[in-house]
Amino acid sequence: MKEAETRKRQYLESVLFEKETLLSRMANSRSWRWTAFLRKTDAKFSALFRKSKKKVCASETKTEQINQATQETCSNVDKETGTRIHLSDAAVIITCHNYGKYLAEAIESALKQTHKPKEIVIIDDDSHDNTEEVARRYLKDGVRYIKCKYNNPSSTRNHGAKNTNAPFIVFLDADDTLEPDYVKKCLLKMQDPSVAIAYGDMRFFGEENTIKKKSGFNRTVLYRENYISSHAMIRRQAFDMVGGYREHAKSLEDWDIYRMILMYPWKAEKADTYVNYRSHKSNRSYKIRDLSLGHWEIVNLMHNPITIFTPFAGRFDTFERYLEGIKKLDFSKKLIRLHWFDTSGDEKFGDMLRKEISKLPFGRTTYSNAPLPDFWNHTPKSLIRNRINGTNQDRYYHDLALVYAYNNFLISCDTELALTLEDDIELPPDALTKMIQSIKLPDTVAVVASYNCQLKNIQLVWKNDELGTPQFFSKRGKGIEKVDGGGFGCTLFRMHWLKSMPIYTRVFEDPAVWYDHTAFAYLRTQGNVICNWDVHVNHLETERFM
User: Fold this and answer.
1) DSSP reduced 3-state for 10
2) What's the gap between Cα 509 and its chain centre?
3) Which domains are seen in the chain, by residue range?
4) What pTM value is reported for the model?
5) Could you read off the pLDDT of 248-305 as tens digits, one per residue?
6) b or e along 82-104 (b: 16 or more beta carbons within 10 Å of the residue's beta carbon)?
7) CB burial class (10 A; 0-12, 13-18, 19+) of residue 56?
8) How many CB atoms lie within 10 A of CB 439?
9) What is the pLDDT of residues 135-179, one digit of tens each?
10) DSSP letter at 84?
């Protein structure tokens, strides 16, 4: 064993000696000395290369970091519009009442948003199931849980709004879910500062499985039917401006607040996304449908502001009874917006109107001093006197005076409902309430209260015959009946339809067509006109017929 190791060592020593001899010969050779500068240059380049490599590696690391940051930034930019949005712009408020079995799905859908909301809050309205247990599982994910006891969806949602501060709000029912891009797509629409509501389509699942495509925004259609789901994103300042949801149990609170917001110049926009709506028999919308409520109840019309517009021509003799009629209305005084439009040009009469209107307890009162244009060479008194026995030109200016008044009414009215009430009509206390409650169907555009025409002893309500000629009723009917028109003396209008066409006259034609007939001809193209014969108004006798 020792001999083998000795031979191996001797062999390695001989190999090493040979290498050292070779290296010594090379180092002492002339060629080695002549190439010394090349080796020095090579060493410098090697050192420079190693230094550059370190810089490149550092640069690559920095580039990777920049790319990562850019990628994160680009995820906040819409590829189509280039619009920048912010992850912290929205709050998702999940309202829950004994829906603990669905709640986790709703929370997960909020957490999985491509743009995570700044706030996710669960508002538990007096649940007695496992709602709290489910909610607390997500506290570690930044979800907040708040317990309250309202037993009312409007109050619960308002509580959620008050406990968040993001500038945009999404209300999500605990049995529904959001698509992952819902918040992002809605926020993109909110980049337009005039948009207060952003909404998408609805995918029904559960007992019903279908996708319901929603129409693009149309303000007028929204007042007839609600095509915006309760999950719409709402701009907080618009929500706050109208005072949040109103607390009326029978109405659809989401439709109600959308209509309140959109009475202002705000608009809604449809986003290319959808919400998942769980269809089951305990849905509140099903329960409301099952109550067979009238349209006036579903959309809260008894609790909405209403305009009463009266054009005055300077008649003193009917004023006291007219005034007593509006004072005794059993409708909420604070919701009435009274507008007196004075065309009389009579200073004494105008002073009386200003004095009396200042005493009335209504929510808003307006007096407009609006004498007829001098160009006409007419006063209201001359128009009234010459309407029957005057020339065609006289009749034209009489009708034009009403066209003038009612077009001013169109541009000044800012309520969904309005009652036109002439200055010689005396209302019974229940008139306004009965007329509003006549709007049982969403396609009702006007409700007429009949009154007698003293000159011809007919009712100022008509139906057209086969040739389109108005046929006036000779006596009062009963109940609610579909008609073709009536006088503006006492008519309740849904203003989004009346406003979509100017008031105009065709009295100069043969046969003559008065302003009220042209107005109702247009309204019939938009929906139904009805008469509630059970509203008994009194048409006061005046000097023009005596």
Assistant:
1) helix
2) 42
3) 90-290 (3.90.550.10), 302-545 (3.90.550.10)
4) 0.79
5) 756 789 999 999 999 999 999 999 999 999 987 666 655 555 557 899 998 889 999 9
6) eeebebebbbbbbbbbbbbebbe
7) exposed
8) 23
9) 999 999 999 999 999 999 999 999 999 999 999 999 999 999 999
10) B
